[in-house]
Amino acid sequence: MLTNQKHLFNIDKDVIYLNGAYMSPQLKSVEQIGLESLTRKSKPYLISPENFIDIRKPLKERFAELIAAEDAQHMAIIPSVSYGMANVANSLDLQKGQEILVVDEQFPSNIYSWQHLAKHTGAKIINIKPPEEYKNRGAQWNERILAAINKQTALVALPHCHWADGTCFKLKEIGEKVHQFGGKLVIDGTQSVGALPFSVKEIKPDALICGGYKWLMGPYSLGVAYYADSFHNGDPIEHNWMNRANSEDFSMLTNYQEGFQPKAERFSVGESSNFILTPMLTRAIEQLIEWTPQAVQNYCREISHYTITALRSMGCYIVEDNYRGQHLFGIYLPESIAIEKLKAELNKQKIFVSYRGRAVRVSPNVYNSAEDFDRLLNAFKAIL
What we know:
Elements: E1 16-17, H1 28-38, H2 49-54, H3 57-66, E2 75-78, H4 81-90, E3 99-103, H5 112-121, E4 124-128, H6 137-148, E5 153-159, H7 171-180, E6 184-188, H8 200-203, E7 207-211, E8 223-227, H9 277-291, H10 293-313, E9 329-332, H11 339-348, E10 351-352, E11 354-356, E12 359-362, H12 370-383
Helix pairs in contact: 1-9, 3-9, 4-5, 10-12, 11-12
């Protein structure tokens, strides 16, 4: 069983950081890789042409292993979620009246590309809202999504876990239904992959897009994506030299190529062989593989269970356990708890959380402990 891993991070002893969904703290090992990599360009004569190609391979292989994908050539290196989604949008041929299905208040990087696409194609965006009632909210929200998928559904674009309150969506069932109608399933895994098990073999998404600086525990400005066979003839949003066929032969780069590198490589960002960020994200994912996302889920459940039960008894609503991530949950407050007083108390005790919509978002990881949750609970009790 996974134990507390705070010793692998540089978190101040008096700080309780329950905000991994905002940005992960950096592993000491990732920091060390970054420092070593930073000095590499001081001696550019030691960087060979082969290094531009070779440095990307371990990152794609490790990410493929993390998401149970058999072929690392299905992976692309991206700078952001919006970039990965734009590649998807640019590769779709939607018709007027077709539907793009999203869920209410999902992160903007998984919205703006679809708004732009709908505007220029005449497609319609269908926004699936959660039920007003809290009872069985997660189950009912999933049922609404499944009920909305029909022959007009060209694309379902969802997070795995909702960024505000951790609601998880039944991606396997949703994907099976949209694929029956010939549509595509595109997942924003930024708030889940790394802390919650994800298998492309099981879920079969057409694309999985992940920012790297949250649950993948990597640096800012680098992410990774999976693109299935259904996108391997797609149209990328940029045309850089490295993504073209035979780009590994530097002596022939002006022998311009029509064709691309195999499979998803056409979608990687230019300069993806970033000699600082790429090895940092690679090392971070290696650590996640060593822990395993399932162990992270089990650990987060163990340290938070008592506090969640107590908060519910105080009138707070938290999405039912089987419809949320254990690493991310939103606390919806009863009228008896004043949000501004709670914010002041949490700040006073150096307890870091986020506020998203009407939810107080709590997102623990392996650097947290049951004692951290005891202090969180005491902060709630202090203002009652």
